[in-house]
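User: Hey, my collaborator sent me this sequence without any context and asked if I could get a structure. I don't really work with proteins. Can you help?
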Amino acid sequence: MKIIARAAAVVLSAAVAVPSFFGTPFSADAATTVTLSPYSVYDINDGKFEGWGTSLCWWANRVGYSDSLAKKAADTFYGDNGLRLNIARFNIGGGDDPKHNHITRTDSNMPGYTKFNNGQVTYDWNADYNQRNVLRKCIEAAGDDMIVEMFSNSPPYYMTNSGCSSGNRDGGKNNLKDDYYDDFAKYLAEVSYHYKNEWGIDIQSITPTNEPYTNFWYAGSPKQEGCHFDIGNCESKIILELQKAMNEKGMGDVIISASDETSIDTQIDAFKALSADAKKAVGRIDTHTYGGWKRSELRQLAVDSGKNLWMSEVDGNGTAGQNAGAMAPGLWLSERITTDCNGLNASAWILWQVIDKHVCAAGYNGKKDSGMVDMTKGFWGTAVADHDKNEIVLSKKYYCFGQYTRYIRPGMTMLKSSGNTMAAFDDKNNQLVIVSYNTSANKSDMVYNLSQFAQCGSSAKVIRTSNSENWADKGTINISGGVLKTSLEPNSVTTFIIDDVKGSIELEGKIDVDLSKVTGSSPWKDDTNNDCKKAFDGKTSTYFDGLGNGWVQADLGDTYELSAIGYAPRSGFEYRCPAGKFSISVDGENWTDLYTIESVPSSGMNYITKFDGEAIGRYVRYQTPDGTPEGSINKDSTYCANIAEIALYGEKKEVAPKEVLGDVDGDGLLKINDIVLMQKYLLGGDTLVKWKNGDFDNDDRIDMFDLILMRKHMIANS
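Assistant: No problem. I've predicted the 3D structure and written it out in structure-token form, which is a compact way to encode the shape of the chain:
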């Protein structure tokens, strides 16, 4: 068995040591411990990260008229000196009835590519110049990592029931005419084809809907285009029509993603409701996370369905932190990124709009711009476009976003983590990246346990954003024994970059454990569904729900020398593992301690490859202590033996039998038969199988004195 993390390169600037940064006393008892393992990677896309991005609508539609402002924006968000985004979601506008004038935002009145006259449809490829201008500049700034996804908010107005691209008159009803599903699909395919073949823009994916199962979109809305689609038949129909249209244009290799529901929970229902054929047509699930909580359920649905999963849109005007000032919106964004990525295991995370507000005295197209925001309070976007000054005004939210996007790069392998921390590993460049936020007004002590990596560098580069710093180079901090200890500054986001890291060793020689030879203590309420055998059933979804001082033990049948032990905590109860201990025994009675779990492990499989003692034996045991847990991590009243899975690796070991003093018949034990055999030998009868074991006085001969000493030894040890 071979487990290897996969990743790609990222160029990082060098750091200079500044020892004073870490001069604050460290409190181990109060520290939060995060365990990272190269073996515990995101479930989605084999852990491979595809990147960070933003939708280009509507901000690109607003700034693209100016080459100068468009170039600044592309460099600011996609360039190497900026956020280094690499995903752009390009809006194929439907286009509203030219007679309508109800969309009042200066950025969201998206042009369509067709003109409708007396039932005749013609294409206008000069349309949507602004967004296209920005897209081209973003592609140039991002380079080879760039990914473009096409998406639609609404069909063209003449395909709708209401005659308006903002939605049906009843926002809870479908707006695409029943006989226009194929026309709308062909429209999306035609635009995509033109972008690829006429303008040379590679398209990775396309989605035909945006938050379809909502009642947000209604005719005459002042906000934007939108279109309701019922889950089930309607969403299935547009997906299959799009698949057909893309195939007809020779673009069958473009991924169809679906369905960009506004809520995680709705996304689950919507995907489940798709027809079997529509599910097959969908290559990736895209979800927004404005609502819903079932991240782990959606992740599992994607895994079970064999689908990739993106978090394709979210933003908000939230704040976080304690008296955080301008950091408050950025800390909110950090919380959202971490919660989404670790919960969904998403292979990409995409902000709705990097620019949501615009400053321009003259306005645009007869409409008034939204104006500057108070960047100490919650606001949408990460920056403001000042058209009067021809500049992009950046916020702390922008810099907090960059703590992730600049250093966790496409191709890296995402590691499962917890709490306030995200992590990614680049095995091609032997580099580990950790990002943590602190929303407290006080410093927060952190312990990063990296002991499961085959090799770990001796120091970490530190980059930080706080109220007084933007991507500040804070030097390096030492790593000792595979453990990084540090204190996060109040209201801050910190990135740690560790070089010289090797992610994994080859795990070979997996030992097959016979479940009939697995024993252990009683499970909670004597529930046989969660008994000790579940720890060796090959499934991390089942678990041994043991009690205090609980244990589970496997008889391997032969003596093995272990090379590794893998273990998975019970999901959601990882905190119960610290103080749990693995031991090994030759005879099932005398035990050698191999490893004690000292900190909260990551979810999924963790692997131990370095042992405290000689890892040779026939019996392997996992044991939890008795009594009340110490410290602040496990708040239960007693230790509980909760373990989901144990895996053992090694090879059979030929072990010479242990010589037992007095065992002259060679059966490995001293008993009365040995006394009888010794007497017969001295009387000239039987021979001794192990005569040396009978030489109690070490004079290299067997005589009556040895027999006397044998009897005394047997009585003393009986």
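In plain terms: The mean pLDDT is 93. You can pass these tokens on to your collaborator as they are.
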